[in-house]
Design brief:
- By secondary structure, the chain is α/β, with parallel strands linked by helices.
- The chain folds into two domains: 40 residues; 157 residues, Glutaredoxin.
- Strand 7 and strand 8 form a beta hairpin.
- Helix 2 crosses helix 5.
- It is globular.
């Protein structure tokens, strides 16, 4: 009986160990899958574009005034790729990082930078003014092929809704970046984890389409 008890005990320990190994392996596979979607770089589509594929839906048009009071609409830039983001000038973290990536992208594009338009729509109708928008643009070296678009709450809110931008106050800023092709179609979405190299590559591809 003593020997049988020992054998049974050993089998129990071995069985438990095997179960632990299986559970850990399955958990690792599950965790690895979830982690990849959250932390790796954006995927690459069949066209070679990097980022989240938006399915080529027509980008909602809008009309606002920029940092110089000039009327600007999205549709007026048909024929050239557009980078569209949403910022506020007093943002201490995400917005400056996005602006810096856009500035670096312009540098990396070289001569092609003149063929790409970059737009920022304000998400702070109270704090963002023409003066603060001009200063923000200069600080981040965004002075050409760039419009920082301003408006009232009632003017901006429908645009936020059209582009699924949650939040209309500085506490709820977004890192969303839409890449729109020459036909005015939404092609790629980036969150804050994109790099200027990825954006530059996408824009060069769209310029050749």
């Amino acid at each position: 009986m003593r020997m049988s008890w020992r054998l049974a005990s050993r089998f129990s320990v071995i069985t438990l160990a095997l179960l632990v190994v299986v559970v850990v392996a399955l958990w690792g596979l599950r965790g690895g899958t979830n982690g990849a979607s959250a932390t790796t770089t954006p995927s690459t589509s069949q066209s070679g574009l990097q980022g989240t594929d938006l399915g080529s839906e027509v980008a909602p048009d809008f009309h606002l005034n920029d940092q110089f009071g000039k009327p600007i609409s999205l549709s007026q830039f048909h024929g050239e790729p557009v980078v569209l983001t949403f910022l506020y000038t007093h943002c201490p973290t995400a917005c400056p990082l996005t602006a810096n990536k856009l500035s670096v992208t312009q540098t990396q594009l070289g001569k092609n930078a003149a063929k790409v338009m970059m737009l920022a729509v304000s998400i702070d109708p109270v704090g963002d003014t023409q003066a603060t928008a001009r200063n923000f643009s200069q600080v981040h070296k965004l002075t050409s092929n760039w419009h920082y678009l301003l408006g009232t709450q009632s003017q901006l809110s429908p645009i936020w809704d059209a582009y699924s931008i949650a939040g209309q106050a500085t506490a709820n800023h977004t890192t969303a970046v839409y890449v729109i092709d020459k036909q005015g179609r939404e092609r790629i979405f980036f969150d804050g984890d994109f790099t200027s190299e990825q954006l530059t590559s996408d824009l060069n591809i769209l310029l050749q389409e």
